[in-house]
Design a protein that fits this description.
The chain has 62 residues and is an alpha+beta fold. The protein has helices at 15-19, 41-53; strands at 3-5, 24-26, 32-34, 59-61. The protein is built from two helices and four strands, in the order E-H-E-E-H-E. The N and C termini lie close together (6 Å). Bound molecules: iron/sulfur cluster.
């Protein structure tokens, strides 16, 4: 499963990184990045959690 961040929507709140730092990390410009090309099964639950808590719905998956 792949997760993606619409960087133009990201407000830099850091909530996604706080709940799932193995998938989301803030870059030096305070924009969240997905740090893994394809999210492994053991990280899908936390990746989904990060998607759900994003206040601007900037995270999508397929
Ligand atoms: S939770 Fe959403 S707005 Fe906040 S840093 Fe992550 S992607 Fe950006």
């Amino acid at each position: 499963m792949k997760f993606k961040i619409k960087s133009e929507l990201c407000r830099g709140c850091g909530v996604c990184e706080a709940v799932c730092p193995n998938v989301y990390q803030m870059d030096s410009s305070r924009v969240a990045k997905v740090v893994t090309e394809s999210v492994s099964v053991d990280l899908i639950e936390c990746a989904m959690h990060g998607e759900e808590v994003c206040p601007v719905r900037a995270i999508i998956h397929n």
